Amino acid sequence: QRQLLRALSHELRTPLSRLRVAGERETDVDAMRQRLDREVKIMERLISDTLELVWLDTERPHLPTESVEMLELWEVLRDDACFETNWSPAQLPCELTTACRVHGILNGLAQVLENILRNAIRHSPTDGVVRFAGRRDGSHWHLWIEDQGPGVKPEKLDEIFQPFTRLNAARPGGEGFGLGLSIARSIVQLQGGEIWAENAGPGLRVHLRLRSV
What pLDDT sits at residue 53? Predict the structure, then answer.
């Protein structure tokens, strides 16, 4: 917990310095206000994500679980992603059927998929495809999200799930504070699942193993 908070303090220095530079250089009031608003939102997201990660890792909360249909959840997240990024639904196909149901925390699983999906889109070409697929594996579902980006160096595949490890330090493109996959890992482990990554050649494939209904 202390390490996370120290890292948060370090990470905040960059957006704070950008705020000062914005205030010093911008001459147009509206442009300066828009830039400052954007930077403040970035800092708010950073603080919120860090506190959530600390809460998940230290409190280990017992949240209610339910049956979650993964195809339906993906379709909701896909619509949001298409609205935000101008990707078409055809670029975010899902190979699962309504038979894919897992036992988990709905909001938590939504956040897991959203964090992985955002990273996948960010690192894929604008005309690329991010695919959601999986198969039944005994009492679990083995799911994966695969993008068409440059992948990650093999020695970085475990490291990308550590807090403040930026994916764009491991592969080109995109920004962020490196908390999305850390939060995803904590949520999945909280539900008794597993998460890991591998290179798909090309692209990155993030795997999930979740208990079946």
Answer: 56
Residue 75 to residue 77: CA distance in whole angstroms: 5
Give 53's contacts (C-beta < 8 A, 6+ positions apart). 4, 163, 179, 182, 183, 186
Q: What is the DSSP string of 75-143?
A: HHHHHHHHHHH---GGGS-B---TT-EEEE-HHHHHHHHHHHHHHHHHHS-TT---EEEEEEETTEEEE
Mean per-residue pLDDT of the chain? 79
Is 90's pLDDT higher than 60? Answer: yes
pLDDT for 13-48, tens place per residue? 555 555 555 555 555 777 767 766 666 665 665 556
Nearby residues of 9 by Cβ (< 8 Å), 6 or more positions away? none
72 pLDDT higher than 90? yes
Whole-angstrom Cα distance, residue 177 to residue 193? 24
Strand pairing class (66-69; 194-199): unpaired
Averaged pLDDT, 137-162: 92
CB 161 within 8 A of CB 127: no
3-state secondary structure of 144: strand
Tell me the C-alpha distance between 54 and 4, whole Å.
7
